[in-house]
Protein: Dihydrolipoyl dehydrogenase
Amino acid sequence: MSNKFDVVVIGAGPGGYIAAIRAAQLGLSVACIDAWEDVKGGPAPGGTCTNVGCIPSKALLQSSENFEQVSHHFDDHGIEVKGVSLKLDKMIGRKDTVVKQNNDGILYLFKKNKVKFFHGVGSFDGKAEDGWKVKVSGPSSEDLVARHVVVATGSAARELPGLPFDEKQILSNDGALNIGSVPKRLGVIGAGVIGLEMGSVWRRLGAEVTVLEAMPEFLGAVDQQVAKEALKVFTKQGLKIQTGVKIGEITKTARQITVPWTDDQGKEQKLVVDKLIVSIGRIPYTGGLDANKVELKLDDRGFIAVDDQCRTNLPNVWAVGDVVRGPMLAHKAEEEGVAVAERIAGQHGHVNFDTIPWVIYTSPEIAWVGKTEQQLKADGREYRSGSFPFMANGRARALGDTTGFVKVLADAKTDEVLGVHVIGPMASELIAEAVTIMEFKGASEDIARICHAHPTLSEAMKEAALAVDKRALNF
Structure:
């Protein structure tokens, strides 16, 4: 049977397409189903990450950062620029080109690795004699049989009750990436990764941005020393951030949106904006799967229930990424996708949730891995801390970006690195060294003894590790 496969993956986001490629590398016959369409109705694999998440947001963050640099900071380097103007349509067009390049790249990788791609919605159609029936509805309508099924259908933006996304005035991450003109007043509900990144983009391009956050602490999941530094810097840049707020009934007209809110002192306030980004989290996407048809179990929050190996309650049915428990991160999904493919092939896949890095791509960037100081204190864990500011780093001075610091937390007795927290230039790249050290149960002394090139930003990591033992050399 030509439509019979060892593995059928439903969803071609980071978890799905990576699972499909790895399974094919291991000699399995693989099909991958994905319904995402480009503007012409063609296939656009890559999921939320590639189409309306990680990739396009980073493209706009880079473009808007370039605009801010030429508008406000080039003079510091002796470069005088006059008559700077913004061509927003070209900026959005560049973002779309980057997305298309990634879509095409995934299709190329499928072809290279002999993964059969089907464009459409994948759903369960019952049990087969030697596996599962999977139906493809859409441009590539087919009936498939799979020995193993990997569900990687991702997540969707959470709406505020009674305030659906129209992507014109009330925006999810999708609409926030495609605003036609820079709004004069922009509201953001939710000071998480998406809210801060999108708020930063439009603030740089000229919008007056106000961020409302329900939680009492800013970036509560982040090490609080980092969060306090971030709040100070973002406020200085022009973001208006309010925490501990309670949102009232939001109303909108054709011209504006009114957001009544109460501050943490009980004082009633009102925010009037032209557009409103709602970034209050994401929910697992299982629509179209026909999970009930095969009694695929979901938990009480709507996630597909899996064990620590990503197995569902059904034999040979697996699930990875945003649609299961754990952090909703593209790289977490990729690691699970690889691990599941290897488990299907009889190997022993590896995913360590304790060493998954987190990144917020604002300016300065924020990145961390492992435990925060508040978590270690709550756990009663004895630790030592060392930090090093970028203002004392030669490369950061040369770049003209000395905001922030690196902090290393290590066990007080064994010196094992328990957490690393970075706020500053290229934090997203620097955190990889910390992840590597922690994956091998390394000590702060290991980082301190490794020769780092000079001058580099990575020297701040070495100096922070030296500071754990109170022997930093340059501060």
